[in-house]
Amino acid sequence: MRQDIGYQFVRELAAFWAVSEDRVVWHPDGFDWWPGSHRLSVWVSEVIEIDGHTNFKVILRTELFESVHSDNDLLPSILRIIMNGAPSYTVDHLENDCRAAMGAGPVERPIALVSTVYIREDNLAWMPQFFAGIGILQAYDAQRLAVATAEQIGVKPAVSGPNGPPLATVDWRSFLSRTPS
Fold it and tell me: Is 157:144 a contact under the CB 8 Å cutoff?
């Protein structure tokens, strides 16, 4: 197991969320967790040197829709609505004009909510709790938005579970028990 501060941060997120072993799959660079019916993946990079500081990039990615074709005419307006209400994340989708400018054509792929942070020694004391709050909001929003918006654009919500059926709602109990008064 890695011993760097990036992986330490990942372990602190899991502890703060009180991740139960029956709802998580661990990987060498993070974990997949199902706090509800949408997988939330946490990944940490190897060392990234920036301005003489040792950094680690940590990404939270919560699945929203299964497979969506980028030519879906309703997709841009639905994603704009989602982003207008997004407290702290973005949607990992490039519209076709951006894809064309990069020389890429239309594709069919899943869509997720994504948050990113850079971890280093000077923010390690407070960032895990802050980022854990962002992550739980992201998971809750995926749960809340996927069913309502997927039907409007004719796709399926990206629901899954680690070892069986997904939970019907995000389990807030373990998270709220660790929130300071």
Answer: no
Take residue 35 and report the two structure tokens written for it: 């706090």
Cα→Cα distances 55→63, 112, 114, Å: 26, 24, 19
Side-chain half-sphere of 112: how many Cα atoms within 13 Å? 18
pLDDT tens column, 93-143: 766 666 667 776 667 778 889 999 999 999 999 999 999 999 998 988 888
pTM of the model: 0.81
Nearest by Cα to 23 from 138, 162, 130, 127: 162
The token pair that represents 74 in the structure block:
């309703």
In the DSSP assignment, the letter for residue 154 is T
